[in-house]
Amino acid sequence: MYMPAADSWTTDAGTERTGSLATLYDTRPYIVLLKWSNLFPSREFRIFVVHNLLVGITQRDLVMYEELQSSRRREEILGLISNFHRDVFSKHFTSTTSHCCYDIYIDKFDTVFIIDVSALHTDCTDGVLFSLQDELLPLTALDPLTEPFMRHLHQIRNSRYLRPIFEDCGDGVVDSEVVDGAQFLQTYVPTSLHCIPFRVVTGEHEREGHRRAIVQSTALRLPSDNINLSDSHAIEAFIASQSATVEEDGDSDGVE
């Protein structure tokens, strides 16, 4: 059994099990520890996959980074992620019913590493700059070769929820009126970079707009997220109370 450092595994632990109890009890548990690394949050991205298609990319950290304001750099990142998804990730998810999201990290040498993989689910997925309920989950119920699926993707690309990076998708765009499924698959596969919504924070108002929604979703938070999303006055009060407790313990230890 693999239990990551998040509270979402408790949901899985309480669900119905299949197989005999003997098989369950004979299974040897393992503790898996991930090596800590000093990662730069500006290089962490979350990728959304529906029907094994790359349908959205967002920065993971809700901070405006100067590096991500460059359209040239965004296009480079989009190319790196698209190639990684096509050449590495998608080979392990060949079914057209695959719906998931995964986090990646791009180092200074532009090498892509997978940080985490998760199911696309309301209880354990943070859509960050995408609306999971309104934009991504409806895609899972649609056939990728039908007009409704193409129309929905077109709406995501031009969504008013948060402005996508690429306003003009150029000649490779699948128009909302196109109903040819074969043409859709030829134009919307990960190699058609301009059709993939790639969202980053471009202003403080966007960050604040999503802050409250993330507070409600704690399943995928890191410890630093809990601190960053906490009220500053509450943190100061907590530090003060802990300092007072330490001082009281020190005084009591000196009493005979």
TrEMBL record:
This is Cell division cycle protein 123. InterPro entries: CDC123 (IPR009772). GO terms for cellular component: cytoplasm. The gene is cdc123_3. It holds the Pfam family D123. It comes from the Eukaryota. GO terms for biological process: cell division. Keywords: Cell cycle, Cell division. Belongs to the CDC123 family.
